[in-house]
Give the backbone structure.
Amino acid sequence: MDTHATLIKLEGIAFGYPGGSPVLEDLSFTLSECDRIGIVAPNGSGKTTLLHIIMGLLTPSAGSLELFGRVMQNEKDFRDVRRKVGLLFQDADDQLFSPTVLEDVAFGPLNMGKSKDEAIALSRETLERLGLKGFEEKITFKLSGGEKRLVALATILAMQPQILLLDEPTAGLDQKTKKHLIEILSELDLAYILISHEFDFLRATTDHMYTMENGKILVDEKLHVHVHEHAHEVGAHPHKHE
C-alpha cells in the first residue's frame, strides 16, 4: 500500500496560447513524495508549458491543480506554496540577475525571512554541495553556460524546496558536469519532474519515464524497452493510453 503523500495533482488540464492550437488537452498527472519522474517528448509537445502551469506562471483554460493537497485558484494560493517548489528554467539567464553568485543564491533565503547571516551560511553550504566552493564572489554574467546552470540550481536548492521542476537541466553542460549533476540529483531526498532529451541522463536520474502526445501525459512502454532494455511499470500514477 502506497503511503506517500500526493504533492502535485492535475486533472483535466487544458491550455493553449492565443491564436494557436491547444497545447494541453484533458491532461491528468500525479506526483507523490519520493517520485522521480522523467519526461521526454518532442519540442512543442507542452513540456515546459506543463511546468509553468504547475508554478502558476500560466493559467489553464480548464481543469484543476492541487499542490500539497490544496486547490490552486489564484495568485495568492501560488505565492503561499511557490517557495516549496523549485523551478529550474530552461535558460539559466532567466534565473540569475544579481551581480555576484553569492548574492544570487542568497536572494531566495533572504526573501523567505532568513537573517543575512543565515542566508549567507546556507548559500555557502549549497554552493559547496554543488562543487562551487570559491564561486561566491564571481560575477554571474561572466560564468560559463555550465557554471550558470549549476548556480541556477543552487539558487533553488538554497530555498530548501520540497519539489523540483527541472527543465532541460543538462543544456550547455559538458560530460563531466553532467556526471556531477547526476551525483547531485542522486543524493537529493526530493520528488522531482525532470524534462530532458537525453535518455542516458534520464535513465540515471529517474524512476519512471513519461512522454507527451496529443496534449496528454502517457507512459511509452516501447520507449522504455528500447532505451532501458526493460519496462517500468506505472504504479500508482494515473495516465491515459490513446
